[in-house]
Amino acid sequence: MAKFKGAIVVDTEKCKGCGLCVVSCPTKVIELARDVNGKGYHYAHMANPDACIGCSSCGLVCPDTVITVYRMKVS
Amino acid sequence: MGDIRLMKGNEVIAEAAIRCGCDGYFGYPITPQSEIMETLMIRRPELETGMVVVQAESEVAAINMVYGGASCGKKVMTSSSSPGISLKAEGLTYLAGAELPALIVNIVRGGPGLGTIQPAQSDYFQAVKGGGHGDYKLIVLAPASVQEMNDFVDLSFELAYKYLNPAMILSDGVIGQMMEKVELSEFKPRWTAEEIEKISGSWATTGKKKGVTRRISTSLDLDSAKQEIFNHKLQAKYRAMEENEVRFEKIDCDDADYLFVAYGSSARICQKAIEIARAKGIKVGLLRPITLFPYPTKAIQAMLGQVKGILSVEMSAGQMVEDVRLAVSGKVPVEHYGRYGGIIPTPDEVVEALEQNFLGE
Amino acid sequence: MTATTELKNIISEENLIYSKTPVLLDNEMHYCPGCTHGVIHKVIAEVIEDMGIQEETIGVSPVGCSVLAYNYLDIDWQQAAHGRAPALATATIRLMPEKYVFTYQGDGDLASIGCAEIMHACNRGENIVVFFVNNGIYGMTGGQMAPTTLEGQVTATTPYGRDCKTTGFPMKISEMVSLLPGTRFVTRQSAETPGAVRKLKKAVKKAFANTREDKGISFIEIVSTCSSGWKQTPVQSNEWMKEHMFPYYPLGTLKDE
Ligand SMILES: Cc1ncc(C[n+]2csc(CCOP(=O)(O)OP(=O)(O)O)c2C)c(N)n1
Ligand code: SF4
Ligand code: SF4
Ligand SMILES: [Mg+2]
Known about the structure:
The complex is a heterotrimer.
Chain A: E1 3-10, H1 20-24, E2 30-32, E3 44-46, H2 57-61, E4 67-74
Antiparallel strand pairs in A: 1-4, 2-3
Chain B: E1 4-8, H1 9-19, E2 24-27, H2 34-43, H3 45-48, E3 52-55, H4 59-71, E4 76-80, H5 82-97, E5 102-108, H6 124-129, E6 139-141, H7 146-163, E7 166-172, H8 173-177, E8 179-183, H9 193-200, E9 216-217, H10 224-244, E10 248-251, E11 258-261, H11 264-279, E12 284-289, E13 291-293, H12 297-301, E14 309-314, H13 320-328, E15 334-338, H14 347-358
Parallel strand pairs in B: 2-3, 2-4, 4-5, 5-7, 6-7, 11-12, 11-14, 14-15
Antiparallel strand pairs in B: 1-8, 6-13, 10-12
Helix pairs in contact in B: 1-2, 1-7, 4-5, 11-14
Chain C: H1 3-10, E1 16-18, H2 36-51, E2 57-61, E3 76-79, H3 85-95, E4 100-106, H4 107-113, H5 115-124, E5 129-134, E6 137-138, E7 144-145, H6 164-167, H7 173-178, E8 183-190, H8 194-212, E9 217-223, H9 227-230, H10 234-248, E10 252-256
Parallel strand pairs in C: 2-3, 2-4, 4-5, 5-9, 8-9
Antiparallel strand pairs in C: 6-7, 8-10
Helix pairs in contact in C: 2-8, 4-5
Residues 63-66, 82, 106-109, 133, 135, 137-141, 146, 226 of chain C line the site of thiamine diphosphate (TPP).
């Protein structure tokens, strides 16, 4: 079975830190940062990048559509 | 020359709409204007010109359909009578705020409240001063004959599109129900999509084409500074209307010592009153405002050096008289004579009122 | 290979699988963090892109938090008076029957002040799509009771909980419109999980396809959250919605003809 490696890019300045992506991620990749962005929100970031499978769950539920998802097949 | 017919005022509104290339009518039944929609339904313009006719669930829905249709750059209209126009007030101010052209016909009946189904002119304030909220104006045309019911449909659309502003035909049950000879307008084809793009391409919401700025039909701007600038623009537009679009008629004014000011069916009554008064040796003329907004203020002022008294005759408790007084600024006496609640004054009553007010009788 | 270089390898054009559709403008949304409006906007935008109907679609936005929806979807828009969006949409589709027209309305807008307009547009079977965002509250005006507010729910105007004896009962609008012969497709969806979003997207596609086939009105209710109005975090809101809203407003398709 092919395995996938994924990665996300969060537009941290536009992120509102709602946390919906965090709970939607099946492999617990995402956390809210301790730092805040220009608007004062604890933005989302990949805390555990190795676990990302590129399923796009976070992207789908993000109300502000600030997550871009990449996925690569690894043998 | 167009077809000559004997028709009711209300039927003529419907016929004129079809002939001027109107795209859509949205209405709700109310006496004394239901014949407008009924005539349209009988005529089936959807088969002839493609014009859409919809009986809406309420006047509120009808005027908001007009808003939607107007937003598409289409020539759209509604008609109603007084209680229905009160409901339409919401849509009127939104149309004005979004700078949308449309035609609204009010065949006025006596009020307040459910009032009566008989004719009146007691919606003058509502038509020319507002009706809805905010600093806006409607273009208001007051026909005094079935012929003008025909002519003002096309004229209203012309002005509405010229100024991107809703226009109202303010008539009443007398003219709506009256049969008169009329020369109908020639048929004009409805605008094609290409023509709409040419005429209203900067704002009509017809679908965002590639490389073209998208269009949004709205009256909202939460930024007060921008809202004030927008209001300045509206006011400039209203001043331009006052400069360019005032229409009125003067009858027997050349030698007049006294003046009637009256619009619509009251003006017809005043014409009869002039004959009676002149037979008695009273030199009286009539100034008939055709546009109620913009109001013929200057035309009234031009008469001030000549006349000794002005009688504003209206089928109301005295509404337009306020605009006459504003124009006159106390320079000559201005009085009001009116019957209301659906009662139509007789020419004799009008002459009597003139005599009582100005001739010491 | 180190972790960072590996990431760099993955993040490249050919591996891109999810990004913002160009139909969604870059303007930052004014919605509160976690607001369902954002998810619904995105789904509509994605379907418009997928179906290639951007040039033919006209949206009608309501009065409510989504009054400014026109700032987010790159299409032509009409902004309606409170509750009247279905009237605008009626005229628009009648006068331009070849277009795709949708209304986007909150529960205050659609179920309260605009109840007559939506019922009659549904009854006439206008060939439009309706998005009904049911968050059980008036979000924009500060969290007052909506017709859809649940029994006992605390809002700014039901500070002791909604008392159905005096305020009536939460209205099941989808059930109501599904009874009207004019409606073709009535479905109740949500948008809180990836699965729900996918299902919603399917429903939206079906709705616009119905327009294409001139089938008449498609009505999509989206049970939503308003974390500001509900005074919970976005994550808590989703949990509260599942626990309290879903039993009363069960998800699923009520009508598909
Ligand atoms: C005629 C009118 N009445 C009242 C308002 C005030 N108002 C603005 S939004 C709103 C309620 C919106 O609630 P809803 O439709 O549920 O949308 P939400 O904000 O929850 O998305 C009200 C009452 C208004 N703008 N116009
Ligand atoms: S869902 Fe979007 S807005 Fe919310 S925390 Fe995640 S990235 Fe930020
Ligand atoms: S108030 Fe509620 S509905 Fe409005 S943007 Fe905030 S979360 Fe969304
Ligand atoms: Mg709501």
